[in-house]
């Protein structure tokens, strides 16, 4: 009887906990930040390099040799309204508890100390470039899509980062979509229990800064903006932390007229010199990627000006890599493998700016993400090679049948001659060669997926 009574009591307790949604207790919340959280070196418009840091104290000081420079505040802690135009069912104010700080890279310094972190000067020539993209853990209630953020197989971004670190890159390029934790993990779902959500710095820390902290300090970065970082989503954090404009952080407009683009979604294109022959051109397609403005509207003219600026920038080196989040020459994956032509709202603007080729002379290849798959496309017609590296960790499904892709016409007059795609999570390494670049794709365990060579705009795999 005693045993029976104890059993009944235990069953009642479990039933009570289950009803209360407590059967799978979430992991304990991380301790609150104290002091410097992360520091890194990133390319900024100008062009140039800046040191950025996140802290919950006052901005730290850069130290090297006998010199010191205090970092300046980009943004202070505080709450912002929910992102304007956000469509997720559950919304809350965007809470920032960390201060973002900045200083230009001090000329002549080989390395600087920021708190406990040592940051090294970018090399004069950047010959080993790790490219990653689409890396956050997807929690999105509007699509009922909840990735297992607590599982190393389900969300392999930390493994991808470890592989990237082992490659000892001169530069890391992230092709966009860092922040994916938009909605709360459903009650009782252990695979994502305890995750922060929303657009504040707790979700940013979980999706990017904490897992990437070591790689952020180990090499300079170029941050390309994805649609997840548009003002209607995680744009507030983007502008505070990663925007290429130096100085006090820009802000997203809080309200918009219907059909308007947010001023916070326009970023002047800028270059990152890689060598005397080669450069990156960084383009913000976050807001235009999914919708083309009406032809001859003010927004159309503004985007066209951005592309005119790209054409000017392309004259700065013999060869350029154009980096934007949304590809115009690529296929979307499907469950059957049937290739779907990827559409970008920027494509009609590119066709208007440079008919046929889409990109100005000198652009030998374009780097993108957005499609959660690795694919490379080389053309018999006159277009730069298109490299899509969106397999960095965010949930993915589907594949692309290569034979079908090679027969498909992406755009009128575009003829594909080289195509490969891989569904594994992973990263890519671009290594400078006398003719151009070698591209090596790896999965999250470091196993090779593909090796290609780029000579001019000709891709061979
Ligand atoms: Fe995207």
What is the number of independent domains? 1
Kindly report the CATH topology. Purple Acid Phosphatase, chain A, domain 2
Question: DSSP strand (E) fraction?
Answer: 25-35%
Tell me, briefly, the overall form.
globular
Sheet with most strands: strand arrangement? 15-14-11-25-26-27-28
According to CATH, the homologous superfamily is Metallo-dependent phosphatases
Determine the number of helices (DSSP H or I, runs of at least 4 residues).
Answer: 7
What structural class do helix, strand and pairing data support?
alpha+beta
Largest sheet properties = 7 strands, mixed
CATH class: Alpha Beta
Account of the protein in words:
The protein is α+β, with helices and mostly antiparallel strands and about 450 residues long. The chain has one domain (about 125-460): 4-Layer Sandwich (Purple Acid Phosphatase, chain A, domain 2). It has seven helices and 28 strands. It has helices spanning about 1-20, 155-165, 200-220, 235-240, 300-315, 345-355, 400-405; strands spanning about 35-45, 50-55, 60-65, 65-70, 70-75, 80, 95, 100-105, 110-115, 115-120, 130, 140, 145, 170-175, 220-225, 270-275, 280, 320-325, 330, 340, 365-370, 375-380, 385-390, 415-420, 425-430, 435-445, 450-455, 460. The strands form seven sheets. Strands 15-14-11-25-26-27-28 form a seven-stranded mixed beta sheet. A seven-stranded mixed beta sheet has the order 16-17-18-21-23-22-24. A four-stranded antiparallel beta sheet has the order 1-2-8-5. A hairpin with a 4-residue loop joins strand 16 (about 270-275) and strand 17 (about 280). Helix 2 packs parallel to helix 3 (about 200-220) and helix 5 crosses helix 6 (about 345-355). The model is unreliable at about 1-25 (pLDDT under 50).
